[in-house]
Amino acid sequence: MIRLLIADDHPAYRRGLELMLGPIADMEIAGAAATGVQAVEQGLALSPDVILMDLRMPDLDGIEATRRLRHAGCAAAVVVLTMFEDDDSVFAAMRAGARGYLLKGADQDEIERAVRAAAAGEAIFGAQIAQRVIAHFAQGAGSPAVAFPSLTEREREVLEMVAAGKGNATIAHELMISLKTVRNHVSNIFTKLQVSERSQAIVKARAAGLGNP
Fold first, then answer.
1. Which residues make Cβ contacts (< 8 Å) with residue 106, sequence separation at least 6?
2. Which residues touch 207 (CB under 8 Å, ≥6 apart)?
3. 3-state class (DSSP) for residue 125
């Protein structure tokens, strides 16, 4: 029996996955999470075999939730199930420890195959994502390294704006997120960059080419 945790902030989509996968003989819905924090808490408490993880969720995005689960020793295989197919999202998820990446347009058979493959320890990607991965590595090892690879896509976006001299209120307005969320991102950025104040983060970011000062 494959025990599943479904993490998605859209109740209708989350319920749809439960109705789709719950009746399958060798699958069981162990829990459902509506935020990234809940995904981490339930992933550790319920010990599922596979977590279907959305990327955009309140409190904590799916990439950071995946990273925290890995660091906490959670053995569940994370399969990202999202609308985002850009390279930054795909490779940030892989760096965080995800074993699969599917787009929300995937049909039931594709999702079932991904769940079973992840539970068996395999890495699984949707067809469109696989093409992106292949194209990326086909460019060769000479591709430039990404600055601050521990940052999530959203954290990198916030750091770019911080490096450009924008304040938290401006960042919140331009990204259409709450001021509290911006503060959380900035706090996470400080921790990952090992700095204690904004000016130090700006210096590091600009040295890496961020912010276009």
1. 81, 114, 126
2. none
3. strand
How far is it, in rounded angstroms, from Cα 51 to Cα 47?
10
Q: Are 61 and 90 in contact (CB under 8 A)?
A: no
Query: What is the identity of the amino acid at 80?
Result: V
Task: Give the model confidence (pLDDT) of 106-131 as tens digits.
Answer: 899 999 999 999 999 998 887 667 76
Of 32-46, 145-159, 161-175, the range with the lowest mean pLDDT is 145-159
List beta partners, residue 81.
Answer: 102
Q: How far is CA 2 from the centre of its chain?
A: 22
Q: At what angle do helices 87-96 and 62-71 cross, to 10 degrees?
A: 20
Domain count for the chain: 2
Domain of residue 188, residue span: 153-206
40 SS3 class: helix
Q: Do residue 7 and residue 91 come from a single domain?
A: yes
Q: What is the dihedral of CA 110, 116, 118, 121, to 10 degrees?
A: -140
pTM for this model (two decimals): 0.65
The verdict on residue 213 lying in a domain is no
